[in-house]
Amino acid sequence: MAGDRGTWTTEEFGTSHEGWVGVLLADGTVPAPALFDTGSGPDVHQTSHWSVYDGRFTHIPRAAALRGTCSCGWSGPEHPLDWDAIGRQDLEDAADEQADACCQEWDEHTTAVEAATIPLPESVTHLLEQLQAEIGKLGDDSPLAAVRAVRRLEAAARAAGYWVARSAQHDATPAQAATALGLTEAAARRELARLGRWSPYRS
Question: For residue 44, what pLDDT band results from cuts at 50, 70 and 90?
């Protein structure tokens, strides 16, 4: 398993802006994933979770600082670790304030990403919120009716998405689409291809 580092995502931006607590060593480099022999044959557990970088095992280095990190390439300010104060405490407990700060800074990063996206008219935002609320209320009375409503909504979104995605492909560059949607360029291309029903690999 390559992940296992405790990541954060938002519903809208997904893995385009997946965040985590990043680790920096004393020389400023990012350590490789830590490996643990599980003792069950050839299986080796691999993790990049910040809390394992405490230097207790000779093959795992000790973190010098933590920082918020995002899959888009953004990183936040460094939060140094005071190992004299940490001593023999578990790093996850001793550095929880630094880790919380990393999460907060990533939240601020995604807020900035959202602020840079193309704005929706208030009327559209209101309709979407109202529709979600109405389906929720319908689900309280008749879950199956709510499921049917969701399926109708999905069908309507597919029909509308086909034309708007094809128009967007001609009207915007990949970089413009990425900024407008709050995605990476690769993710924006995949999303337009999904909605417009063409291969994301076509030139």
Answer: confident
pLDDT of the residue at 1: 31
pLDDT of 5 reads 77
What pairs with residue 46 in β-bridges? 35
CA distances from residue 169 to 49, 148, 186 in whole angstroms, order as listed: 39, 31, 13
CA distance 65 to 96: 12
- Predicted TM-score (pTM) above 0.90: no
Q: Residue 91: name the closest of 37, 55, 45, 67 by CA.
A: 55
Token pair belonging to 104: 């907060």
Contacts of 67 (CB under 8 A, 6+ apart): 21, 22, 24, 75, 76, 77, 78, 79, 102
Burial code (b: 16+ CB inside 10 Å, e: under 16) for 73-107 equals: ebbbebbebeeeeeeeeebeebbeebbebbbebbe
Q: What are the two backbone dihedrals, phi and then psi, of residue 51, each rounded to the nearest 5 degrees?
A: -70, -15
What is the model's pLDDT at position 39? 65
What's the pLDDT tens digit per position in 149-193?
A: 999 999 999 999 999 999 999 999 999 999 999 999 999 999 999
Rounded Cα distance between 101 and 76, Å, is 10
